Amino acid sequence: MTYHIKTIGNNIDQIALDEIDEGFLVNQVSEAESDAFICRAQPFHDYEFSKALLAIGRAGAGFNNIPIEKCASKGIVVFNAPGGNANAVKELVLSMMIFGTRNLKPANKWLTGQKGDDNTIDGAVEHGKKAFSGSEISGKTLGVIGLGNIGSKVANDAQRLGMKVIGYDPYLSIEHAWNLSHHVKRVNDLAEIFEKADYITVHTPATDETTKMLNWKNLSKCKKGVILLNYARDEITDKEAVLKAIDEGIVRFFGTDFGSEKFYHHPQVFLTPHLGGSTVEASLNCTRMALDSVQTYLKTGEIINSVNFPRVLQELNTPYRVTLINKNVPNVVAQISLAVAAENINIANIVNRGQGDYAYTLLDLDEKDEGKLAALVSRFEAADNIIRVRLIENQSLV
Predict the structure, then answer these.
(1) Which one of the listed residues 4, 102, 186, 274 is annotated catalytic?
(2) pLDDT by residue (tens digit) across 29-58?
(3) Residue 126 annotated in active site
(4) Which residue among the candidates 233, 288, 321, 388 is catalytic per the annotation?
(5) Is 390 a catalytic residue?
(6) Active site residue 233
(7) How is 164-213 classified by DSSP, letter by letter?
(8) Span 183-219, pLDDT tens digits
């Protein structure tokens, strides 16, 4: 069986594409004939998906460009690459903490504005540099909001640099908790971050709960001279509130990856053009992760790193596997079992997991009769509440 993967849009890492497994071809057929897409920021909200499309791999952590509920309703599994760019974002955040603390933006502007020869400028430097004296991050308190892939890395490395680190994340997973240094103190009240931290960095998705989290109510609680960073999502920043906090001497420096005319040319704001995950290494990591997830799904039916279906893993050790995407309603598993029994087929393993309105089933069968299998697939395709049916052959046993 050969599967066809299509790259959509630009900036898909070619090195990762060249590493594709045997049995997969890239960009050999049209979009309408492809089994899966690999994309980055290409928008899909108005896209008409073909019935042949089984999966979309997003070579990055975010997936706002993909209509995940629409895809789920059509039986298209959407994957992302969580943590693939985490190190890149972490390094930028740490560098901006130091950048802001050492007054490098105004110092550079002052120095490059000097006139005269080197001796004249050297003399001006000796007299003028005191105006740009900064401080050190060691011994200061960093507040990290969101302790996932990126936030936990920032917290751990900041602690290694001598900072006291407090973190807030009411949804911290067990996996990320294990990766978090025991020196990082978790707090249960968001207000503690704003009240106690000398530096605050946000690493959360944009949700109803986090939109405009950097608002006046929270910022007014901060110490004078706090350094504030947002390299997560633009929606988290209440721009007017940040400007007010700067004007009142609360925020000393604001660094963000999201441009706005409100911030352009402001001496205490440093903007970067969405560079957090824009490194050669991050691009390669994210593309590899997305490709690995898509290839695994197409070949075995297993789901890893999906944003619209649950994680489902089950070693394939039977001749055939049927995968089902179905509406998450009562009695579907019973109906599946009855359909298999009606064809006199034995179920070796069954895994069914639900997520929201949809569920996913792996059905491993001790059967090689292609006629029975075809009849079973037809039963499933005709059944209510079943959206997508796939029959996967274990070539090592058939």
Answers:
(1) 274
(2) 999 999 999 999 899 999 999 999 999 999
(3) no
(4) 233
(5) no
(6) yes
(7) EEEEE-TT--HHHHHHS-TTSEE-S-HHHHHHH-SEEEE-----TTTTT-
(8) 999 999 999 999 999 999 999 999 999 999 999 999 9
